[in-house]
Every structure is written in structure tokens, then in C-alpha cells.
Amino acid sequence: MATHAHNRDHAALMDGVYRVQRHFYDLTRKYYLLGRDRLIRDLDVPARGSVLELGCGTGRNLVLAGRRHGDARLFGLDISAEMLASAEKAMKRNDLADRTTLARADATGFDAEALFGRKTFDRVFVSYALSMIPGWERTVAAGLDCLASGGSLHIVDFGGQQGLPGWFRTGLRAWLGRFHVTPRDTLREVLESECQRTGASLSFDSAFRGYAVLATLRLPA
User: Which of 22, 143, 174, 178 is most buried (most C-beta within 10 Å)?
Assistant: First the structure.
């Protein structure tokens, strides 16, 4: 019962944050959400494959994935109804609505079959969402658990900024905190643990002097 109440509180918080921001979110975030386009380029979706984004936000990433993989089936979930409203408009504007299914759900625990009519996906990705999700470790587990055999989970998010000046790290984290964003310093350890649990392999890369990290977890075929 407490978990459901917490999820409702977080959904209300995200709706409050993005009720106005969603209208200019993509214009501003492109300057500091680094590595998103690289993640999408690396998805390597199989022919007529399926792609699920956890925390799809405005739909910006799904649009790019849909353009790059013209026969892929696209799926997205987000806890914010406000963000999903923008995502739905984006998919229609880019003529992708006919092969896209969006749903409101909590990325830390969801029933893919109930939401989307399928249990598994060829590719799952999370772009700058783990740093905003309470209980983000469960999102990693949920993403892996809905992967098809041979599928891969792709993650990009804020890194530890270890290659950047201390004053920059301190200022960045203080500023991010204003938007309820917290870099996940234990991300690699959590991913390694999940690989042990599932038998997945891990590729982990620090980019832009540690500003961002990109990770890929791949299940055996």
C-alpha cells in the first residue's frame, strides 16, 4: 500500500514539474543531455524488431529511433501524463502513431503484456531517466526482465563527472537537484549485479570526461 502511495506521489510530482516544461523541454535539454543520439545509433534494431523506452518523456527519442528503423514497432511508457500528452503529439506529427503504443506506467514495476500486449522486446532503452526515478535499481531489473532472448538494454545518464573540475561537479549536481535529478554513482555496480543475475554481458563507457555514461546489457541468444 505504501509503495502505491509513493508511486502516486511521484507521478503527481512529475506532472507538476513537466506541466509547463514539456512545451520547451526538447529545446533546452539538447544542450546538456549528452549521448542520447549515440545511444539511438547503437540500438541496432533487428528487422521488424520491437523497441521499448522506459521513461519516454516527450517522445523525442522514440521519434529518432522510429526514423532510423523504419519497420520497427515502437513502445513507450512514462509515469507522467503530461509528458505522454507531448509524446502522443510527437508521434502523430512525425507519422509514427500507427506503429507506436504509449502507456502510463511506473518504470520500476510494470506488466508489459497488460500494457502493450506482449511480454518481451528486442531492444529496451532508458535515457536520462534513472537519475529521476526513486528505486531506479528496479527499473534496470524490469528492463532486463522484459528483454527477448538475444535482446539488449541500453542506458545513458549522468556520470560521476570525474574528469571535470570539482567546482563544475558541485555546481552541476546542485543545479540538477533543483529538477529532482540525482546522478547514480553506483550505476556500474548495480548493472554488474544484474548481469550476474541474468547472465547478460555488460559494456560500460564513460563519455565527455565522465559527464555521461553509456551502458549496454545484452542477453545471450
Answer: 143
